[in-house]
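A quick word before the example. In earlier lectures we treated sequence and structure as two separate objects. From today on, think of them as two lines of the same record. Here is UDP-N-acetylenolpyruvoylglucosamine reductase written that way.
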Amino acid sequence: MFEKNVSLKSYNTFGIEAKASHFFTFRSVDQLQQALEQSAGMPLLVLGGGSNVLLTRDFEGLVLKNGLMGVELIEETEEHYYIKVQAGENWHQFVLKAIENGWGGIENLSLIPGTVGAAPMQNIGAYGVEIEQVFDHLEALEIASGQLRRFNHAECAFGYRESVFKKELKGRFIICSVTFKLTKAHEFNTSYGAIQQTLDEMGVTQLSIKAISDAVIKIRQSKLPDPAQIGNAGSFFKNPSVDKIDYEGLKAEFTNVPGYNQPDGKVKIPAAWLIEQAGWKGKTFGNIGVHKLQPLVLVNYGGGNGNAIKELAFDIQASVSQKFGIELHPEVNII
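And the structure line, produced from the sequence above:
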């Protein structure tokens, strides 16, 4: 049933060479249940798009590739569409399908790499929108029992790039499907970043979910490297939040430090600014480095080693901590 000694290079967007001792792509919940029964006791690693993982070693266990596919309109009200999406679907392709069908709410999340199943796990977000704003429920399979369980919004305990599946339930469930609550009458979010400026440059006078998606795609392509060209996992670190008093102290020393007030009273500081100010932007070390346009992105130019990228991340964390007294935390899962 399982393939053996499989290269994972094409299954992670960093393009890191590592091998899985056992590998299986499941395309139904039944297949997943059977795989779990046959691999009892083996270490497990579940991969979706491999866009949020840094492999630092061969994996001596079973790598399960999520191949669950399908997008279905399951309910419709006067205001919303309820769309059930299988976890193996490509996230950006789903966004494009939503726009094509007039399902609103996720257009600001265009061009985010990865699969639908990873979206609630990470509570992915961009340009003023996070998954939790359009999330209804998901179905996940409990590894220990092999049973499907439904999780509602509250049970997922969403936070900034966090959910219960990265905390208390980490490694205990495999997400199989996600149901989204998408809009019919759209509220357009153009206030974040350069969306409005880009729309103006594009000559857009009539706002639509497609226009916003096009603007977001244009912005992301201008800033972020395409993993098909340069190995990367997108933003490597989370943006840190600090207490207001600490932010004021920083501002007294670094007058141009940007900050964004948060609902919890803290101030979010862009990690990219901290990393650039610490002198890392565009630095290369052999065949790895920090991207020249977006210092939040660590890159593999080809033949890079996962441990070398991990060490680079540690060095960046230490440097930022020393200069600003702020701890950066990885958004990427280091295996």
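Notice the following. Residues 71-183 form a domain with the Uridine Diphospho-n-acetylenolpyruvylglucosamine Reductase; domain 3 fold (CATH 3.30.465.10). We will return to this example when we discuss secondary structure assignment.
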